[in-house]
Amino acid sequence: MDIKQEQDNPEESIPNVMPIEEIITEEPFKEIETAETAVKKDDKPEARSTPSSGVAPKPSDILKAGFSGGSENNSSSLQAPKPTEILTKAPDLVGKKAIIKRPKNKIATVFGVVFVLLVAAFVAFFFFFYRVKITINTSPAPDKVVLDGKDVKPGTFNLMPGKHTIEISKNGYITYTDSRIFKVDETVNLDFKFEPAKTATLLGEKGYLPAITKDGNYIVFVASNGQLFSKKISDVNAAPIPLSNNAFTNVTDLFISNNGQFALLKDIEALKVVEFAKTDVINQNIAKLPPSIDQISSVTWNATKSDYFPEENSEIIYDLKTDSGWRLYLANRAHSQADILATLDPDNFSSLYLDWSENDKQVLLTGGEAGIIDLTTREYSTISKDAKFIFGKWGPQGQYAALIDDLGNLYRVKDGKVEKTEFKTKPELISFTANNKLVIVSGARPIEVNFDTLTSIDYAEIKGLETAQKVAVAQGVIYFQDNIGIEFAPLAFSSYQQK
Hints:
The chain is α+β, with helices and mostly antiparallel strands. It has 3 domains: 3-97, no CATH class; 113-190, Immunoglobulin-like, CATH 2.60.40; 201-490, YVTN repeat-like/Quinoprotein amine dehydrogenase (Methylamine Dehydrogenase, Chain H), CATH 2.130.10. 16% of the residues lie in helices and 38% in strands. Strands 21-22-23-24-25-26 form a 6-stranded antiparallel sheet, with no helix packed on it. It has a 4-stranded antiparallel sheet with strand order 3-2-5-6, with no helix packed on it. A hairpin with a 5-residue loop joins strand 21 (349-356) and strand 22.
């Protein structure tokens, strides 16, 4: 069939189409027709005639009109628009009048307003009520207030709930410290009078180098006349008694044997071993170690006995600085036998500080990097180069060691691993009181540090402790060397300190 025949008989080419009434109802169709009519009325009503009956045309009528081209004389018949008309009218259909305006959703608006109000209320509560209020007003006025690590002026502070650290200090008085978790709406009024720092008792005027015996029962020191004196710690009123008849000049190192019968010391003459059981001045010095004393930086000895060293305090390790570097010597107490233990690179150490662990196998070295010599293999190994370490000390049984760098930072050593802590102190201001606990001094305040948890207890300041050069702690009493001599005081708290 050719195209002309198809146009003359459109019904033969039209497929079977389901009447539109069976697909949709009349009402939706009327709504579409009404909307279309409304748009056309706004344009040119004469452009298209509408059925006069108002009844929706059948699909067959629409298709017939489209294929036959319609009749110009029949105004009631539905004519399909020509392509040119569609293209011409298309712009009009997307104009301003074609925009469908939807009604505003009042419920959404209400919810939006409510949400904004809730947010505003939350913010107001957060800033004005969900706070910790801390007021600082001491008498006399503090020299320094540190809140969460920052210097602030006394006043009122509104802080977020959680952990906060407060430190209020004044020279000559006991520092107030508090570090804990503060709760919501908590109010803290720090309105108190400073307590004067604790006073210390003078043990030996111009005395120096306090040292504690291993059992913690006696304090030994060098008196102003060069003699060694001892005092029982548990007897507060006991007077110091002399241990040596000989006088030693400018002692720089002092070690007391575990049984308290002899001492190892270094003075301006030599390394000396002094036996207290001998009463005559000459024979008390049982040994003088090498004569080149000016080349020796440090000395240490074994505090315990083992398979390698069958007697405690029987072996001595000291250093000698040579042109080729540092040499470490291992000698017996009588210095009848000595050999080279190790040779160290001078680039790694500007000086040396030695400490022999109580586990009898390890010697700790500082004075540049930090390292350990294993006495079973006589091998040296570096444990840290992260800082310039100037001091190192083993704790009881060698479980922990403490290091101090040139900036005063305290480090913890365990199993050959070095960890920096938040604490600061100075060399020789460290005293182990247990395997895992030590007391350090910061300013005039003793601080007990737990090396297991790295938590601390702050004790009350002690007058004179801020100038301490060396400390020793035992039985809750701290002995220290300051500009006056050897002084001591119990570790105590103030009435306002957190215990």
